[in-house]
Fold this sequence. Notes:
By secondary structure, the chain is of the alpha+beta class. Helix content is 27%, strand content 36%.
Amino acid sequence: MTRKRYGVGIDFGTTNSVAAIYHPDLKKTEPLTDRNSNLPHPSVIWYRADGSISVGTDAKNNIMGLSNVEGNAFVYSIKRRLGKERTISIFGKKLPSYEIASEIFHYLRKDAETRNQSYEIREAVVTVPVYFDGYARRELRKAADRAGIYVKNFVHEPFAAIVGYCHREGAGLQMENMEGQIILVFDWGGGTLDITLAQINNGGSVELATSGIEDRAGDHFDNKLVRYSKDDLLDKMNITPERLQIFPSDFDRWLTECERAKISLSTDDEEVIQVANISKYDGEYLDMNVEVSRHDFEKLIEDDVNDSLMEIRNALDAANVVAKEVDQVLLIGGSSHIPLVRQHLRELFGHRIVEIGNANTIIAEGAAIVDAEGLQPVLARSLNIELSDGTLYEIFKPRTLADPNVCHKKVNFFCTDNRDGVAKLVIKELAGRIDANRPLMKRVLSIPVSESLPMPYQHERVTVDLGLDEDMILHISGKGATQDIGASCEIYDLCFGLRLEGVGDGLEP
């Protein structure tokens, strides 16, 4: 294998985004964080009426002062809109979400190239949440393409985090030292809670189970503080909500202040949410000045934290693993810093909780290592079609390279029961830990067939075509021999893993 001069990884996040460079000769990662704060770049885009655009810290820092000033528009959490075919109006012009997201990719690329002229960010491994469906991955690819970055591979964020964790500065990847270990990645960021249970196996990692909650993470907690402070203001003024006038631009400033208070409450016992001229009441502006304690905040999010623990149990149950069998728990994402969250996790896993010093950048760093070291996405589980006698016909073996040129097959079957005019194609994965696989239903595709065949035919032949595309979406189509029209479906939630190039078996030609 020809070693690359450097690898590039990009973690495109709901709240923050960051690129990283990996130097394989030095076995050293270089996260390209904000030069002043040394933190990831805020995923905030600032549009001005003169056509200029700012991204990152400059954009976020100006929300408080300019969000309610004409000629300024701010967009944040754009990642949550990808794949939902939503547009955002900027100065009366509707822009698709991927076009707005491309500004973040463009910013990360230019930032890298200006700080080091030897860096040419034209391609990268880009990380995605486990929950990201095919539509969202396509939109993310379009966003990167628009910024001049080719997405070589999508890698699930938890796997990138594991790779980053297994890397030792100056020593490279050390996965062989963790062979057989079960790792739980608890990634609670700004947009979602992602829980992934994985096992280190044969030079790579494989997914055992995933779970999580969408739209109930850091952004959700910010909004809860908004409602808390609004109720406090209404109570102090002794007025009804209908009489309080709040403009969208003022809400942006309010939300930003609540995010700041939330972060502060992870280290401080009390905070004050302060926003000048936040709303109008009887024609006059009111100032927001609300005290909130850590206890108050924890009461607000108590149900969400309890639900996060339930999602952990769901993942463990799905993989047939008990908590004491988990060797290490990696805490990723800003919401994992909340003391109440860490308290409950320690009660469940004890000393196996791992405090990661570079938690803000470890996903991007892991993706850069994946790029440079040639780690390749593979199917974590075998994919099968259930036959009429209940047995499974294996289509793709576990550890099959997740590549369109490899992961493609055409198979002929015969429908043994055509009374309803359909052949039921049942797709199953073998789920669970490596030593305890069990079938998991993925999809049932109803393929039209003839209800009555001419003699001497008794069973209609059905041709099934299965293929993975570059966005890791499995396309399945089936057609009966007597029919003009077939049926098709997509599976975007297959389980994946990573392996070193040339390591492992089970490749399908």
